[in-house]
Amino acid sequence: MPLTPDLVVDGRVPRNPVLAPNGRLLAHVLTPTSRTGDHVDTELRLVDTGTAVERRVAEATATQSRPRWSADSTTLFFLSDRAERGTPQLHRLALADGRVTRLTSLDAGVLDHLPLTDLGLVALLAEDEPAARPPHDDVIVVGEHEPRARLRLLDPSTGRVTTPDVFRDRHVVELRQRPDGGPLAVLTRAGADDDYGPRTGRLHLFDPVSGTVEDLGAAEIDARSLAWWRGADGWHLGYIALTPPGLQAGTAVFDLALDSGVQRNRTSGLPMCPTELHQTDGAPLVLFADGLNTTLVRLDPTGPTVLSHHPGHLEALTTTPTGELIAVLAGTRYQPEDVHVGPPAGPLRKITDTRPELHGATWGLQQPLVYRAADGLALDGLLVLPAGTTASDGPFPLVTIPHGGPYDRYADRLQLFWFPSAQWLAAAGYAVFLPNPRGGQGHGHRFAASVAGRVGREEWTDVLAGIDLLVAEGIADPDRLGIAGWSHGGFLAAWAVGHTDRFRAALVGAGVVDWGMLAATGENGQFEAALGGSTGWSGTGPHPHDAVSPISFADRIRTPVLILHGAEDTNVPVGQAVYLHRALRHFGVEHEFVIYPREGHSIRERHHQLDVLRRTRAWFDRLLHP
C-alpha cells in the first residue's frame, strides 16, 4: 500500500487514557491528527480492559478531553464544549444509564478538574470571568487582567461553585489529593506565562473542608507531575522538575518529606531521565526516557526499583490505586501509538487499534544506531532505510533530521508525522538519520545540560559524527546529503548550512536563527537565553549568543534552503524566518519561504499539513534525485 499524504494526516490518535479504579474499564479520548474547521472534534471512548471491546460514549460534535473517574468507578467526569464551541465545561457520565449531564456553566469555561475522594466535591481549575469593558475598548495593558487559573470547588448535587479565598493572585497549575482522601497538594506560579512562570513555582497544602492553606515553600524550576506517598517518616510529596541550577537541564524526581521539610533529588546520577511520576496507594511509579527506550520504575524508600523495560516510547501512564494494573500509550517501530494494559512488570497487551488503515503499509527498515562522538561520548540514534531495501543496497541519498527541544529525543518507535519524518521520506527512496546529540533526553542530567550556552557546538559535531559513519559504511551517498528539522531541529539545519557545504538541500521549519532575538520575543525567553548564553540587554556586546546564532553565518550559506513557518508562532516567532529569508535574499542564495496563516509552532490545519508533506518531498526530490 503506497504511503500517501492523506494517510499521514487523516489519522486519529488516543490521548488521556485513564483506568477506572476497579480496573475494568479505561476511558480515553480519540483525537484527529489534523483539523479541518475552527475546532477539533474528538471522541470519548470506553474500553473493557478484559475483552478490549471499545465503544463511543457522550455522542456529540465537540472537543472532549480530560476524563477522570470517581473513586467508586461508577461515574466519569470529563470536559466538553458541546454547549458552546471553544468553551469547555465539566460534564458527568453515569455508567448505570449512560446519561450525560453538564455540571458547569462558567463564562470562561473549565481548564481542568479533579473529583475529590470522600467529599462529594470536584475541584476545578478555571479562570476568572471576563471583566466587563466599554464597547470598542480593546487596549491591552500588559500586566493588567492577565488570566489566572483559580481553584474552585463544585458540588455536583447542587451545581454550586465556590472560589476559596486562597493563593492570592497566583496561577494554579496542578492539584493532587492525598490517597487517603486528605488535603490537596497545589502547585502555583506567579503568573501563567511560560517565560516567567516556570521559575516561580510554590507548593501548598489546601484542606477543602476547613479552607485552610499551608505554604510548603518554593518548588524547583518547571515543576509538574505531583504525587503523594507515605513513608516510615510520614507523608511525602514528589514532583518532576529541572535539575538545578540551569533552565537547560535534565529532569529529576524531587521528594519533599512534609514532617521534616527536607527535600532531596531521588534520581540524581541516573543515566536516564524521568518523564512522568504517577501516584498510587503505595510507592509512586516513574517512567524514564532511557536512551532509545523506556523504563518503568517504582520509587521505593531505599531507591528506584526497576519493574520493566520497554522498547521505544511510553507515555500517559495511568494505574489503578493499588498500582497492580497499568495502562500507557505505546507503539512499535512499525505500529503507531495505542493503549496497552498489563501489570507493571509486563507484559503489556494492546487494547485499541486506532490506525487500522496503516496495516498494509510498507515501512522502511528501522534500526538503532550506536556510535561515538568526536570526544568519545557514547551516542545513539535511528537509521531508517528506503522502503524495500537493506543496507547492502546503498549508498542512498541521506536526509538527516535532528529533533526539537533540544530536550527531546528520538525513541525507537514509528517515525511518521506531519512534519519532516523518516518514514515519509523513506517511502520516496531516502535513507534517514535521526540523531540524538547531547542536550537531549534519555541520558541523564549532565548529557542534557552540556549544551547550555553552547548550542551548535558539540551537539553539531555529534550529528556530523553519525553522518560520517553512515558515509564510511556505504549507506549514505556523500554527494546527496540533505538536512531538515523543526524548532531546535530547524536551528541545527540552519546552523549546518552556515558551517559546511556538504549538504545539497536543507529545510528549516520553525527554526531559531537568532538567540538574542528569540530571548526577547519568544514565549520561553529565559529558557532561550539559557541556550543562547546571553541576551541583547547583556551590555554592549559582542554577545555570546551571536556566536551561536545561524544568522551570524548567513554569508557562508550556499545550500538551497526551504523555510517553513507558522504565522502565529509564539514559541519561535515568524520574525526568525523573515530574518533568514532576508539574509538569503541579500546574499543571493536559492531558497523558498512559506508562511502558514493561522498556524502556531505546530501546523494543525489539514491542508497545511498536506502542503508540508508534499513540499518537503518535492524539495528534496528536486535537489537530491532519489
Automatic annotation (TrEMBL):
Keywords from the named record: Aminopeptidase, Hydrolase, Protease, Serine protease
InterPro entries assigned: 6-blade_b-propeller_TolB-like, AB_hydrolase_fold, Peptidase_S9_cat, WD40
One GO-annotated biological process of the protein: proteolysis
Pfam families referenced in this protein's UniProt entry, alphabetically: PD40 (PF07676), Peptidase_S9 (PF00326)
Keyword Hydrolase: yes
GO MF annotation list: aminopeptidase activity; serine-type endopeptidase activity
Lineage: superkingdom: Bacteria
Domain spans labelled Peptidase S9 prolyl oligopeptidase catalytic: 422-624
Name under which the protein is recorded: Dipeptidyl aminopeptidase/acylaminoacyl peptidase
